[in-house]
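DATA SHEET
Item: assembly model
Revision: 1
Owner: S.N.
Input lines:
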Amino acid sequence: MPAKTDVVSNEIKLQLYSLLYKTRATEDRIIALYRQGRIMGGVYTGRGVEATTVAAGLALEKQDYLFPIHRDLGAHLAKGQSVLNILLQYLGRGNSLTKGKDSGIHMSDTTLNIIGNVSHLGAMIPVAVGVAMAKKMQNEKVVTLNFIGEGGSNIGDFHEGLNFAAVHKAPFVLVIENNQYAYSTPAHKEYVCNRLSDRAQGYGIPGYHIDGTDALGVYATIKKAIEDARNGKGPSLIECLSMRMVGHSAHDDAFYVDKEQMKKYEKKDPFLRLEQVLRKEGLLDDKQIKRIQDTIDKEIEQATDIALNSPLPEAHWAAEGVYAE
Amino acid sequence: MAEITYLQAITEALREEMQRDEKVFLLGEDIGIYGGAFKVTKGLYEEFGQARVMDTPISESAIIGVAVGAALVGMRPVAEMQFADFITVGFSQLVTNAATMHYRYGIPVPIVVRAPSGGGIHGGAFHSKNPEAWFVHQPGLKVVAPSTPADAKGLLKAAIRDNNPVLYFENKFLYRRIKEKLPEGDDVVVPIGKARLVKPGRHVSLITYGSMVHACLQAAEILNEQDQLDVEILDLRTLQPLDKEAVLSTVERTSRVVIVHEANLTAGIGAEVAALISDNGFEMLDAPIKRVAALDTPTPYAPVLEEYFMPNPEKIIVAVRQVIHF
Ligand SMILES: Cc1ncc(C[n+]2csc(CCOP(=O)(O)OP(=O)(O)O)c2C)c(N)n1
């Protein structure tokens, strides 16, 4: 059951809308740069999952720690990351957050309390629990939040990390982005329990199963879990059901995906859905929508320009920084 | 001066570092009231409380992952593996997260993972492992393996104060078997990356570490009596980073080298040391480099098999005679 959405303020609703647009537009730009051969490696986007990732990122307070994974560009943005830093990172520039040393959105920003991921699915769960435990030991009311896909939820670290968090009442929230496909593998070949959120019972923690395409419902539910964690009630598991609306990565045409299911979810597009609600509530009209989108388009345009003109790393940097001083 | 065991030296280092720095805390299985499977943390729970001597579920990956997370935000966790063998469960957290975090993100990961390692105790294939070479192969990790109480204490202190992930292989065969007089409450930190000349000699160098330092000492004594050989012994102490200078200078003095380790032979530390010498000291050698190590098999259980499997003074002596008579 999602939490009641009437707690979501108008200001938050508009922020969610802007962030959903910004996420989509930035990812579209990244895909374009990839097709032009300017971005190397894999490009994984969050289309279809954006409401979950954006709302989770926005529900965290400044002092809280975000542990995003491969489709969570929206969460980076919601936690305050700039489009410019994201593009610099994808383009492997010398002035990017990882100085060209890591790819995709594997990037940390200690000024924003964002810790980037490794590719190994599930590997960040224990680490996020560790930050939560340490903050508790330091008597700070800080919550950490990490994501996992329905596919990744079958990795051992999911179990070890969540059980550890439950035993030690770590202020931690784990969000399952159930987008029904793990690369080419449909969910029913990944697990056969009814709902992944039911696993929470096995750890003795609250589990929620909600519509991951409804930004307002996701925000309200995750907000509640975050505040519960902050108030000493321990971790929660939140399963957000959505649909991956593109291939696994930019090279994949997703021929294997059930077309009927795709059609059904086209009607639940998280961005258009929120736009409709906000129009109905009188919070948005054509003029405001244009203003919001124009501002973001301009920001992306400028960021692209700066990023493409930014220096590449110097080759010898490759040998540096393996060890801390 | 009190005489303490190798095991007590580890406990003392933990206690003193926890007293010195409240950011230091311990986590692991059964380390609290029980004091750990080998009683290394005995008494620390009573002294520092359950928050700093944290009993965990049986979850090596989570233990190491949680340690990494805590280190990211300023803590200095020391994780205990109940046996070094079980580090395999947390392998990915070490090589994927801990080892690469500073290179990719510039964030230090000051964790120590204590791993009771080694055979000779009839523990069989899963309670005897010496897995250090796996980790030496991963840039971003430091690896130490003390052989004496003084080094056990001093290297653990250095490991805890280091800003990098350090794997600390403590040899459980040595736990209660060797003692040394150490000044009480001394704060000697043994620097990571520095080998120790155990015994100078003129005829041949034994380059070794961990439990095999003691096997080498026995071999040296016999070789002195029976062959009138003056054997030099170098204890590497740190396996990553290797003390290249110390390795090359012992080669320079004796021109003959036998590398000895308890871990199995293939792609072990011995291979790396041999390559280092071949690269930088080829002209100094008067004989090919020999390695003495465990067989390339899982550790067998029955004492007669395990004895056959393990390196020992007799095997070291055979190898030394080969390089001497080359
Ligand atoms: C441990 C591990 N195994 C395999 C992979 C390769 N891989 C990357 S993403 C992916 C599918 C992930 O599916 P899911 O967790 O459901 O997340 P989604 O991509 O659908 O958001 C796979 C198999 C990996 N990154 N890590």
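QC remark: Chain A has eleven helices and seven strands.
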